Amino acid sequence: MKFWSGKFPWSRREAHVVNPQAASPEQFVDTLYEGDENPERGNWTGKLDFLLSCLGYAVGLGNVWRFPYLCYQNGGGAFLIPYAIMLLGLGIPLFLLELTIGQYSSMAPITLFKNYAPALRGLGVAMFLASVAVGLYYNMIIAWTVYYSYSSMTSDLPWQYCGQEFNTPHCFSNSEYERCDAMYGNTTWWIYNYGHCITNTTEADQLQVNSTVPVANRTSPAEEYFTHHVLNLSGGIDHLGQVQWGLLLSLFIAWMVVGAALIKGVKSSGKVVYFTALFPYVVLIILLIRGVTLPGAYEGIKFYIVPDYSKLTDISVWVAAAVQIFYSLSIASGGLITLASYNKFHNNVIRDTLIVCFGNCCTSVFAGFAIFSVLGFMARELGVPVSEVVSSGSGLAFVAYPDLVTRLPVSTLWALLFFLMLFTLGLDSQFAIVENIVTCLLDEFPKLRAKKPWVVVGVCVILFLLGIPLTTQGGRYILDLLDYYAAGWPYLVIGLTELLAMYWLYGIRNYYRDLLAIQGFSPGMRLKAHLTAIYGTVSPLLVGVVLILGWANFTPLVSGGYKYPAYANGIGWAVAILIISVIPLGFIYNVVVEQKGNILDRLRQSIQPTEAWSQHSRNIALKEKTTAAEDGFDTPSSDLYPELTSQL
């Protein structure tokens, strides 16, 4: 037996000499492919490109603005118990499943599932449609961060004080109120109303006020800036109103950045994520260091982590943990499958799964400390309990935190850092969403691959045009509607279908075989029994329970006190049903139209993998075997990994 010479027919580059008998599959394949392993589709340039893209996709805005609030709301530190259980029982198994099938087949969701089991062709289409719906409104949120970023480039932040044309009489600036109190105190009659100090009764009579704005009616300058200036929010979804040109420009910039990053596919986006995936961690560390040094930080952190174990008896807490794991890891959306499809065949998916899943969850917990330390300071400044300044979602990102930075020295710097962090957090997720859409199209229509830059531009332009209604005065209502319906139940149904299809149609043994082929790893009998129980019972039950409880406790959408009309909820349901319905419709179409023979033959054929499903793995095996033979090995590539033929 001689060592590999480093030469092979599909590349004339010299490679590092490796003993294939001693090498792992991943190490051996690295010596075989200096360029792309899959020239037609391309591969990640380096292993870190995929890992950081996956981490950036999973670590999104929800880690900063949703998890800390959920933790506080559902028992503080006690919430970490169901959260960890859901991570192990639901998050990691589904994450590993999606990486494995994507990497094994080197296909995007639509093409993958119609070859995985033709009856599931609708499952890939459902992922595609869900990505379109989510990508449409998610980039609008990124556009808000763009707007705030360039609005922060002033010495005085525009949401720092009242008295601007968009402010209402109820606008209340705590810093201005304290200044009035220090200036006039008890020596002069004064009140604070209409956004400024009123020191004479004549002006008060003209304005028809005789006291300071009541606490219950007060709104912060940051809240009014977001509602009345940035969004210029209308009275409801019935009144979309005019396009807000600042938001339209911000949305255009957001799509320009996404398009530029993806113009060359994973070759370009894989480099951008080195900044966009790591920069948020730098800012979070800075915010945490600054936050814990502020007065009141201890109370905020205590409020965040003190456990309330009585909450563990509430089923809704466990449901909240399952839903958060599901969404924070971005499973069932198709993006993970697409990202993994650009991996080399023997990439270590188990390692990447553990790094991303635990890294994502640790980021969520870490972000909670950074956020609640500064919320504790804000509560101390306002003289109110921490619970009164805690908010979730856009309320935290675009109201509470902007209000907070006005109370810090060098507020412009803190505002820029925070909104740039949100911008990069959102971009990573949007990259994967749009890449999923583009790759689905390219895999279905391979002739378009030569024109991929134009496909990227076309997708970005179409989604930008479709997103214009989101920039109107009523656009916020459309955004919340899409978020509530398109990003909710469809993903849960998709995830449940994935699990059931792998276990009952494709077969758990075939899944272990595929994992062995790409990883060179076969779980022992004990571990295999645990994994089989998780995939066949635990994970489907968890998703099923969440779905049933969600439907049983369904309430029509209410956002910020605004109750959506019945027809708007009907539109939301229509969007959700459209995404979900393509799964059974795809099954019916395949059985009735595409398959031949009697009904039993059609059903049997519809659940069998096609030849194309394992074509990529056969190509890899052939290349490894050819290389081994040309370099004088006595054993082909199948003998390098005897487990592939001896197990399962």
Task: Give a short summary of the structure.
The protein is mainly alpha-helical and 648 residues long. It has helices spanning 25-32, 47-58, 61-65, 67-73, 80-105, 109-116, 121-151, 174-184, 201-207, 221-230, 245-262, 266-276, 279-292, 297-305, 315-328, 335-341, 349-382, 394-405, 411-444, 452-466, 475-485, 489-519, 525-552, 566-594, 599-606, 615-630, 637-640, 643-646; strands at residues 191-193, 196-198, 558-559, 562-563. It contains 28 helices and 4 strands.
Portion of residues in beta strands equals under 5%
Structural class by sheet pairing and helices: mainly alpha
State the helix count: 28
Distance between the termini: 29 Å
- Number of distinct beta strands: 4
Indicate the radius of gyration in whole angstroms: 27 Å
Helix content: 55-70%
Q: What value does the average pLDDT take?
A: 86
Q: Which term fits the overall shape?
A: elongated
Main β-sheet, spatial strand arrangement: 1-2
Characterize the structure shown.
The protein has 648 residues and is mostly helical. It is built from 28 helices and 4 strands. The chain has helices at 25-32, 47-58, 61-65, 67-73, 80-105, 109-116, 121-151, 174-184, 201-207, 221-230, 245-262, 266-276, 279-292, 297-305, 315-328, 335-341, 349-382, 394-405, 411-444, 452-466, 475-485, 489-519, 525-552, 566-594, 599-606, 615-630, 637-640, 643-646; strands at residues 191-193, 196-198, 558-559, 562-563. It has a two-stranded antiparallel sheet with strand order 1-2. The chain has a two-stranded antiparallel ribbon with strand order 3-4. A hairpin with a 2-residue loop joins strand 3 (558-559) and strand 4. Helix 4 crosses helix 17, helix 14 crosses helix 17 (349-382) and helix 19 crosses helix 20. The protein is elongated.
